[in-house]
């Protein structure tokens, strides 16, 4: 997959909204901590990102969403939702993918506020994301939201004049704090914090209420007895 595909999405509409960058591993290797889901694992990983991107595109503060992925089939489905899709290039892991996505956004929208959002937030609600982005805009610097576990990060955002400088992976909350980013503590925004790495996380997301793609994939998981 070369270059960029997809159409302008989001409902920001006035040209001043956030450009989001969502990373996605190829589905065959994504969500390895969901190995207990067996053959349903890739479908779950796809469902999570479709629900994440669908909710992000429905957020009033979001201008557009760029997905960075080396999975052409997932990329086509995400472009169908209205996301821009770019390949991991060069493929060098999560933070390199985010920097690449940021560069493609900056080339298209040099003055845009940019945020990296994990692709595994199947309970994401547009109104909660909007509240978080409004809180971040008030910070006037780099800012991040910790995940539900309190150790990782689900969203990192920046203003037009500062690089995103992502430090995602594992215990990234401490890394982002050490990098000088401000932690967003309000709103509580449980749906923006609830990333899904394990079956326990999936149960927590289902309790919050997941999007339509994850509801179907989770039903398939239940049907197979996991
Ligand atoms: N484009 C891209 N996305 C990545 C890469 N590594 C992780 N991601 C994505 O980054 C987000 C957060 O990553 P994780 O929660 O660790 O997801 P994961 O790597 O699929 O999960 P595990 O295999 O269990 O570690 C998810 O949306 C992943 O799909 C990468 O190398 N390239
Ligand atoms: C990507 C992250 O962690 P995890 O792989 O645990 O989702 C993170 O929180 O930065």
UniProtKB/TrEMBL annotation:
<keyword id="KW-0808">Transferase</keyword>
<dbReference type="InterPro" id="IPR025877">
    <property type="entry name" value="MobA-like_NTP_Trfase"/>
</dbReference>
<dbReference type="Pfam" id="PF12804">
    <property type="entry name" value="NTP_transf_3"/>
</dbReference>
<dbReference type="InterPro" id="IPR029044">
    <property type="entry name" value="Nucleotide-diphossugar_trans"/>
</dbReference>
<feature type="domain" description="MobA-like NTP transferase">
    <location>
        <begin position="50"/>
        <end position="178"/>
    </location>
</feature>
<comment type="similarity">
    <text>Belongs to the CofC family.</text>
</comment>
<keyword id="KW-0342">GTP-binding</keyword>
<comment type="function">
    <text>Guanylyltransferase that catalyzes the activation of phosphoenolpyruvate (PEP) as enolpyruvoyl-2-diphospho-5'-guanosine, via the condensation of PEP with GTP. It is involved in the biosynthesis of coenzyme F420, a hydride carrier cofactor.</text>
</comment>
<dbReference type="GO" id="GO:0005525">
    <property type="term" value="F:GTP binding"/>
</dbReference>
<dbReference type="GO" id="GO:0043814">
    <property type="term" value="F:phospholactate guanylyltransferase activity"/>
</dbReference>
<protein>
    <recommendedName>
        <fullName>Phosphoenolpyruvate guanylyltransferase</fullName>
        <ecNumber>2.7.7.105</ecNumber>
    </recommendedName>
</protein>
<feature type="binding site">
    <location>
        <position position="153"/>
    </location>
    <ligand>
        <name>phosphoenolpyruvate</name>
    </ligand>
</feature>
<dbReference type="GO" id="GO:0052645">
    <property type="term" value="P:F420-0 metabolic process"/>
</dbReference>
<keyword id="KW-0547">Nucleotide-binding</keyword>
<keyword id="KW-0548">Nucleotidyltransferase</keyword>
<comment type="pathway">
    <text>Cofactor biosynthesis; coenzyme F420 biosynthesis.</text>
</comment>
<dbReference type="InterPro" id="IPR002835">
    <property type="entry name" value="CofC"/>
</dbReference>
<feature type="binding site">
    <location>
        <position position="172"/>
    </location>
    <ligand>
        <name>phosphoenolpyruvate</name>
    </ligand>
</feature>
<feature type="binding site">
    <location>
        <position position="169"/>
    </location>
    <ligand>
        <name>phosphoenolpyruvate</name>
    </ligand>
</feature>
